[in-house]
Amino acid sequence: MQVTLYSREGCHLCEEALEVVRAECTAAGVPWQVVDIADDPVLQQRYAELIPVVLVDGREVGHWRIEVSALRRALRPRWWQRGAARSRR
């Protein structure tokens, strides 16, 4: 599982989203990254009006104001993931 926060410098909502992502991903033990859309014209075109945007495994979980409950649900292991983890042991 991977969490990506699309952000840009000077965005106050992005700063709030970063706090939520950092706290929830740390608690869940899930890796996360911040991607500045200013570095990529394609991302700028796609997300400029939506940032911050949070993706979990490539699926959008939220934009603008990130709901903690939505991110927690997305980070919760699914039954098929738990089964796969057991079979790898």
Task: Give structural attributes.
about 90 residues, alpha+beta, Glutaredoxin, 4-stranded mixed beta sheet, 4 strands, Glutaredoxin-like, Glutaredoxin-like_YDR286C, Thioredoxin-like_sf, Glutaredoxin family protein
Sheet of most strands? 4 strands, mixed
Task: Report helical residue fraction.
Answer: 40-55%
How many domains make up the coordinates?
Answer: 1
Derived from helix and strand composition plus strand pairing, the structural class reads alpha+beta
Shape: globular
Which CATH first-tier class would you pick?
Alpha Beta
CATH fold group: Glutaredoxin
- Strand element count: 4
Contiguous runs where pLDDT drops below 50 for at least 5 residues: none
CATH superfamily: Glutaredoxin
Mean pLDDT: 90
Number of helices: 4
Spatial ordering of strands, largest sheet: 2-1-3-4
N-to-C terminal Cα separation, in Å? 18 Å
CATH architecture: 3-Layer(aba) Sandwich
Strand portion = 15-25%
* Alpha-carbon Rg, integer: 14 Å
H/E series = EHEHEEHH
Organism: Metallococcus carri
Protein name: Glutaredoxin family protein
Pfam families: Glrx-like
InterPro entries: Glutaredoxin-like, Glutaredoxin-like_YDR286C, Thioredoxin-like_sf
